[in-house]
Inverse folding.
């Protein structure tokens, strides 16, 4: 299924794929990318230290090659981030082949901070 919810049909071989049921050129581009070098936006969590929450949700700022998702998740699992954490803060920079940044998708206040 393409990003526009088209249910694509792919036939032929790797050198000459035939893509059908796309409603726009984006479907063709998506299918070709999926066949050759698929990517995904990484979403996960990281542990916090001294935060009001034990975890902070994170995502990559651009797509990650599907083949290296697990490797990056293993790196995330090995780290603990000190609170406070601001939404949008880069928690890991230039990771993987695509040199993605891992950013916080929410803020986490430090334990004992005023108002918490």
């Amino acid at each position: 299924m393409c990003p526009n919810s088209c249910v694509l049909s792919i036939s032929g071989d790797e050198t000459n794929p035939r893509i059908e049921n796309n409603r726009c050129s984006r479907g063709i581009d998506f299918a070709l990318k999926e066949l050759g070098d698929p990517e995904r936006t990484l979403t996960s969590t990281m542990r916090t230290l001294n935060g009001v929450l034990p975890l902070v949700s994170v995502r990559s700022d651009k797509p990650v090659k599907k083949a290296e998702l697990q490797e990056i998740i293993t790196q995330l699992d090995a780290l603990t981030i000190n609170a406070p954490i601001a939404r949008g803060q880069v928690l890991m920079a230039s990771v993987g082949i695509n040199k993605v940044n891992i950013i916080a998708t929410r803020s986490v206040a430090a334990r004992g901070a005023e108002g918490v």
User: Anything to note?
Assistant: The CA atoms of residues 52 and 97 lie 33 Å apart. The chain has a mean pLDDT of 89.
